[in-house]
């Protein structure tokens, strides 16, 4: 079964995904923009930005901040210390239902950084041991980078 939807930018620069007439996702951006550009970057990041803003990293909304069950090489997740926003993996409930599923995958930066899978109670996969996330998935290559300026 295929899933379809409509990506739409509505007033004030808010990006929404519609399924028929129902909003199933909203960017909730609070910045007012006059001349919007929706752009798919070479990295795979779909960004919404103000056309007159010369800063190429200043986005009103970007898909890399709303992860489901997939990441790309330049995807970051964890806590952004500048915005206070946590970026984490949140898979769909089913292939036909894009609402959040039962599990979420977080990077906890307090103490020794560790990956946490949440479903009601916390289940930890292990802290960062200086080389990799211990007890994490050995087929994936993780890099840990922490910066107070959000980059």
Automatic annotation (TrEMBL):
Name used for this protein in its record: G-type lectin S-receptor-like serine threonine-kinase At4g27290 isoform X2
Keyword Metal-binding set for record: no
- One Pfam family name is B_lectin
Q: What keywords would UniProt list here?
A: Glycoprotein, Signal
What is the organism field in this record?
Olea europaea subsp. europaea
> PROSITE patterns given for it?
BULB_LECTIN
Boundaries of each Bulb-type lectin domain copy?
Answer: 1-61
